[in-house]
Design brief:
alpha+beta
């Protein structure tokens, strides 16, 4: 009798041990709402790695050795599949990786660990990302072949790596030589990262709000109910200064586009090309309040066209980008962007000759169109008197024929 009782007791203990073993080794499931849809993933226990708050070369290498021997492929496959399904640009994809890392290892609890997950996942998803440590900080950067300004970068073997997390440290961020690179070779990390945003996510319609916009043209008032989305602000919160071609070609999201472009097309339908462009120029100039970036943000910051529609204030860079986008979508005319020491403006090549101030660029005539408020109420073909004797640089030339 005692033997049977002991036998059953042993079996019960074994079952309990097996049960607790199963619980300990069960993957953690996560669900993340990410703009377009829902990203579901699992984190196997073998990739949940403890690491000190202060990163060193040794702790980084330990983290990599541990997680690299774990079962991470399910997660990286899920990330890659989501990117392909929703056609995410690299910058948008990086936001998904950030949010994924945040769920596995909250940023506020252990910033180094959070950064290590971002670095590891970005590499395993095919990008050449690197780490450096120093002053108790962990610096995260990625290979990039584009003309990016206003963020720190590192050079390794004549290749440029842009810093992805310097903003997290603010004034505590040191010069590049204060940080020592951690030499870890990750076979999958081959590709350069791109900051080009050629497509915004299809945000859920319920995430939009309406914004009333008014302006007057030829003694007639025009009213717009724009659909705008604050998620756009989050996407571009830490977006760097990209080259002007990349900047000017950031599109509107689907709902915002549908609330604006068809109405603008309708309003200019019965106008000739010059008057239609004049209408778009004055809409861009007068439908939004002006304020320079230093007063608005405390630093230079270019807004995408949708951010300009969303924000209360904007400056000349923002107006030029919005005007370019509207003219391209409605008329698709050749244009040049002209950078002065303290101003950015536009010039348009019309189908028919237009009188007024113009420039010749690559043998073609471009007529000045000022989309930013000036002291004078400038018409199409008028350049501000303050700029007429100031040198400028053509920073972007849009040619529709070359883009088709």
């Amino acid at each position: 009798m005692k033997e049977n009782a002991y036998k059953y007791f042993s079996i019960a203990v074994l079952c309990i041990c097996i049960m607790f073993s199963f619980i300990r080794t069960k993957a953690q499931n996560y669900s993340l709402e990410f703009y377009t849809g829902t990203f579901n993933f699992s984190a196997e226990p073998s990739i949940v790695i403890n690491t000190p708050i202060n990163a060193t070369s040794e702790t980084v290498k330990h983290f990599y050795n541990e997680i690299n021997s774990g079962d991470y492929t399910g997660l990286t496959k899920a990330l890659t599949a989501y990117k392909e399904k929703y056609k995410l640009n690299d910058w948008i994809y990086y936001q998904l990786i950030r949010k994924t890392a945040e769920l596995i290892s909250p940023k506020a609890k252990n910033y180094s660990r959070y950064t290590l997950y971002k670095w590891f996942l970005l590499n395993k998803c095919g990008y050449d990302a690197r780490l450096a440590v120093g002053n108790g900080q962990i610096i995260f950067y990625v290979k990039n072949n584009e003309d990016i300004s206003d963020i720190p970068f590192f050079m390794i073997d004549d290749r440029k790596y842009m810093c992805l997390n310097y903003h997290d440290y603010g004034k505590l961020f040191q010069q590049a030589n204060a940080y020592k690179p951690v030499n870890i070779s990750i076979p999958e990390g081959l590709h350069a990262f791109s900051y080009k945003v050629t497509r915004l996510p299809d945000f859920k319609p319920e995430s939009y709000v309406e914004k009333d916009v008014d302006f007057s043209y030829k003694q007639k008032n025009y009213h717009f109910k724009l659909k705008v989305n604050n998620d756009v602000q989050a996407i571009f919160a830490n977006y760097p200064g990209v080259d002007f071609e990349s900047y000017f070609n950031i599109p509107l999201s689907r709902e915002t586009y549908s609330s604006l472009i068809p109405i603008l097309k309708k309003n200019v339908k019965n106008l000739d090309q010059k008057k239609g462009v004049d209408y778009l120029m004055r809409f861009t100039r007068y439908a939004f309040l002006y304020e320079n970036d230093q007063d608005n943000f405390g630093k230079e910051k270019r807004l995408s066209p949708e951010q300009t529609l969303l924000n209360k204030y904007s400056d000349c860079d923002d107006r030029a980008a919005l005007f370019f986008y509207l003219v391209k979508e409605i008329y698709n005319l050749p244009m040049v962007a002209l950078l002065y020491p303290t101003h950015l403006t536009m010039a348009v090549q019309f189908d028919k000759p237009i009188k007024g101030d113009f420039l010749i660029y690559k043998g073609q005539k471009y007529v000045f169109c000022e989309p930013t408020p000036q002291l004078q109420d400038l018409k199409v073909g008028q350049l501000s008197a303050q700029l007429k004797n100031i040198a400028y640089k053509v920073v972007y030339n849009y040619d529709p024929l070359k883009r088709n």
